[in-house]
Design goal:
Helices cover about 35% and strands about 15% of the residues. It has about 90 residues and is α+β, with helices and mostly antiparallel strands. The protein has a domain of about 45 residues. This is Cathepsin propeptide inhibitor domain-containing protein.
Length: about 90
């Protein structure tokens, strides 16, 4: 799945150390399009219930935020079919 990502330049170390690292992050401003591509790629069907659609969408957003955090920490994870699955009550909110 092609996802819109933003390159973020991170400066690490003390001021005298010139360490620069590029990190690819999901663009949360493009979350609607990312979710549509995600749904299409994994052949997921939208629920007819508006509440259910909203819950899955916000869980997907939370997954993107978690993945951006993990990418920042150096872990490179990919979106999978479970990115919008709510496993615990209120799992879609912080």
């Amino acid at each position: 799945m092609e996802s819109k990502v933003t390159n973020l330049t991170i400066f690490q170390g003390s001021p005298d150390v010139k360490s620069v690292e590029k990190i690819d992050l999901y663009d949360l401003d493009d979350a609607d399009n990312l979710y549509k591509k995600y749904m299409k790629k994994f052949n997921k069907k939208n629920s007819t219930d508006e509440y259910e659609r909203t819950v899955h969408y916000y869980r997907f957003l939370k997954t993107l935020v978690e993945m951006n955090r993990d990418h920042y920490k150096g872990t490179n994870k990919k979106l999978d079919p479970n990115a919008d699955i709510v496993q615990r009550p209120n799992d879609y909110v912080y």
